[in-house]
């Protein structure tokens, strides 16, 4: 199986035993690097190239005379990083200008290097060859796409990814997008064995970043995504004006899988003239209520004709868009916003009338078939989500150009256990769901994974994440959509491992964690290892006594998708131990500005969780059992003080967000200005104040069982 850090089979001859076994760090090899690139000479009997070394002139980087934007940028990335690692100036020349006699690092296609790649070398694959005269990294290619507006969209990233794989092999890590989040090892000698490596295709064709940062930091986000070999950004609204190509990075996949009905048939254009296109709800067309946009009347043949016409027209005008998102708008429950006319109801399965899968995928199949006939190669896509999560029972086969992303929202996953853990019903349900969709889908499936929509604190699933992503690889999943916003103080390490594992599902996570502790925290590595290990162990060992469930059918005891339930990990016992770890780390880091800055996010995370714990402690101490409604026998602990603490928490969050680029919930408005928006915290508010996540459980007994009646240590401070 492909491991990007081992760039070619010959390297295996030079690996140290500690690298193979995952044993403790070797002080002579602090980054656990392959033996062939250490500052230690290779035995003379082995053929090698000394790229950097005493008495060896600095190598030069060579690009083709007709290098494209991606190849030129790949050369810049190699030059800047190699210069920083070796403290030597590394210059870039075209193939016609390169000085004779220098060791050459050829990046991309030149007259000589283009012969290394074949028609079978994919656009995200590369060849890396080391000879006595130098090293070549050249990627595969695909014909660029030219839009009707005259823009050229590159379709190749292999050369750039080959550069990043090589830099990671040297020990470079991009833990965060900012400069201070990058780790650059120092190397006096870089020796490489002679030989050639052809990288296999990536494990996943679509590797999704999240919409990381506010608009003014978009450049940081784009660079970090590229360095992590992420090629798909979500949310991606496919139907509408397209942004300019990002050809420095070889552009990206333009795959729409999200809500799109009201983009194809906008109510402001059609509702007045064609109300029959919109759902019949409560006796009216196009009245969704609650200020929401209306759903469509999917059984209406005229609507199907107009929808297909619009999609075909858009696909012809935008060949750079591989897939157009046609998922219904959010809220597809029957009786809420979905149409109840005879045509739509006739599409449903009378055995499961509440399942909207049959009408939605029957409609989607119609659109996909017409699109394929009119624009071969174009696709449409949508989620298996909400009331259309389960496969349709009246559609035997989906069209080949219809893409599906399974949305394992809420109870469809337990993120406190491995994906294939025995006797874990939520994860077993998800695996069964994937199997059922695989039986009717023609196009490979995608996954719509969730992490932070319901919890903005730490999500320490780094080890568990490997079992999930490698499991998806084994099931044939083609790509990922990761909706939601991460919080860079609390969840950046989760995002780092998401990225790394999408590129390499067989990543040695324990070894990578060990490198992170040393590289990122320096002198504070030992207590910060204890800090992160405590978080991971708390998640992996999280369990609640079944006796605390007050009724059958109550929510399961684990952690929902979106992180719902993770607030219960913020126990005084855990936070007090974490405070001791952080206090030791602060002392060891001293006044060093780099390590102090990195620790600031962890200290803020602790304060964040402490404020959550204070709310839960208050509920246990002062809360009054209150029914959810006049007719509901279930109760939760209501406390006016906890509600006041929640308001204080939001105020602290907004103030912190404005003053720190380690922000938690900073979102950008339409004007690009930063703002702290409490809307994304809706799930979290209900789960903490109303016990919504564990509704049906005995909340007082639950909080006492977890130790929320114990004292709480304040967050340590930095000098």
What does this structure look like?
There is one protein chain. α13 (509-521) packs antiparallel against α14. With 719 residues, the protein is α/β, with parallel strands linked by helices. The longest helix has 30 residues, at 593-622. A hairpin with a 5-residue loop joins β24 (666-668) and β25 (674-676). It is built from 19 helices and 25 strands. It has a six-stranded mixed sheet with strand order 3-2-4-6-5-12. It has a five-stranded parallel sheet with strand order 17-18-19-20-21. It starts with 16 loop residues before the first helix and ends in a 14-residue tail after the last helix.
Name the descriptors.
alpha/beta; six-stranded mixed β-sheet; 12% strand; disordered N terminus
- The percentage of residues in β strands lies in 5-15%
Low-confidence stretches: 1-45, 663-677
Major sheet strand order = 3-2-4-6-5-12
Tell me the span between the first and last alpha carbons: 47 Å
Structural class: alpha/beta
Mean of residue pLDDT values: 87
Count of individual beta strands: 25
């Amino acid at each position: 199986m492909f491991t990007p850090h081992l760039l070619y089979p010959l390297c295996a001859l030079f690996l140290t035993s500690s690298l193979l076994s995952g044993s403790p760090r070797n002080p002579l090899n602090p980054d656990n690097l392959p033996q062939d690139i250490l500052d230690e000479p290779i035995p003379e009997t082995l053929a090698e190239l000394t790229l950097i070394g005493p008495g060896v002139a600095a190598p030069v980087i060579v690009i083709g005379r007709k290098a494209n934007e991606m190849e030129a940028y790949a050369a810049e990335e190699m030059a800047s990083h190699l210069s920083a690692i070796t403290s030597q100036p590394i210059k870039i020349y075209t193939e016609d200008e390169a000085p004779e006699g220098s060791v050459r690092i050829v990046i991309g296609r030149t007259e000589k290097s283009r012969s290394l790649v074949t028609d079978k070398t994919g656009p995200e694959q590369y060849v890396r060859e080391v000879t006595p005269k130098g090293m070549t990294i050249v990627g595969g290619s695909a014909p660029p796409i030219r839009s009707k507006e005259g823009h050229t969209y590159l379709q190749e990233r292999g050369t750039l990814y080959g550069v990043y794989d090589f830099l990671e092999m040297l020990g470079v890590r991009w833990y965060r997008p900012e400069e201070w989040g990058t780790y650059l090892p120092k190397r006096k000698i870089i020796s490489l064995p002679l030989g050639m490596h052809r990288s296999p295709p990536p494990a996943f064709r679509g590797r999704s970043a999240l919409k990381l940062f506010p608009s003014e930091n978009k450049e940081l986000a784009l660079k970090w995504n590229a360095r992590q070999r992420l090629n798909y950004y979500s949310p991606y609204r496919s139907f509408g004006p397209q942004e300019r190509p990002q050809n420095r990075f070889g552009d990206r996949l333009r795959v729409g899988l999200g809500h799109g009905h009201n983009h194809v048939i906008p109510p402001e254009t059609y509702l007045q003239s064609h109300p029959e296109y919109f759902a019949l709800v409560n006796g009216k067309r196009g009245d969704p209520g609650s200020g929401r946009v209306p759903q469509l009347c999917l059984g209406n043949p005229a609507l199907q004709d107009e929808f297909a016409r619009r999609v075909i027209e858009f696909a012809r005008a935008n060949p750079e868009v591989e897939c157009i998102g046609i998922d219904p708008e959010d809220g597809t429950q029957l009786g809420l916003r979905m149409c109840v006319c005879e045509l739509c109801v006739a599409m449903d399965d009378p055995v499961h009338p509440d399942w909207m899968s049959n009408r939605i995928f029957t409609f989607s199949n119609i659109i996909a078939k017409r699109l394929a006939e009119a624009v071969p190669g174009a696709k449409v896509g949508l989620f298996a989500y909400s009331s259309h999560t389960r496969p349709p029972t009246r559609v035997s086969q989906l069209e080949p150009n219809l893409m599906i992303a399974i949305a394992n929202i809420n109870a469809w996953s337990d993120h406190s256990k491995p994906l294939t853990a025995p006797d874990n019903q939520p994860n077993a349900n998800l695996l069964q769901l994937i199997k059922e969709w695989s039986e009717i889908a023609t196009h490979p499936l995608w996954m719509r994974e969730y992490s932070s929509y319901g919890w903005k604190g730490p999500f320490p699933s780094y080890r568990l994440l490997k079992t999930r992503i490698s499991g998806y690889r084994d099931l044939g999943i083609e790509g990922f959509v990761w909706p939601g916003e991460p919080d860079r103080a609390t969840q950046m390490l989760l995002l780092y491992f998401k990225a790394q594992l999408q590129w390499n599902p067989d990543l040695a996570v324990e070894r990578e964690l060990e490198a992170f502790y040393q590289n990122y925290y320096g002198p504070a590595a030992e207590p910060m290892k204890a800090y992160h290990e405590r978080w991971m162990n708390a998640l992996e060992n999280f369990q609640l006594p079944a006796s605390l469930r007050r009724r059958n059918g109550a929510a399961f005891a684990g952690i929902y998708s979106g992180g719902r339930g993770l607030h219960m990990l913020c126990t005084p016992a855990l936070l007090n131990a974490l405070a001791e770890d952080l206090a030791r780390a602060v002392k060891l880091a001293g006044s060093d500005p780099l390590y102090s800055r990195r620790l600031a996010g962890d200290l803020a995370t602790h304060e964040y969780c402490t404020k959550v714990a204070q709310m839960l402690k208050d509920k246990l101490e002062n809360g009054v059992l209150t029914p959810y409604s006049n007719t509901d026998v279930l109760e939760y602990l209501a406390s006016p003080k906890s509600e006041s603490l929640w308001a204080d928490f939001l105020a602290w969050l907004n103030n912190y967000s404005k003053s720190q680029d380690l922000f938690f919930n900073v979102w950008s408005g339409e004007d690009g200005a930063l703002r702290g928006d409490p809307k994304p915290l809706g799930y979290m508010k209900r789960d903490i104040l109303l016990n919504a996540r564990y509704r049906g459980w005995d909340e007082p007994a639950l909080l006492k069982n977890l130790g929320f009646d114990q004292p709480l240590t304040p967050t340590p401070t930095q000098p």
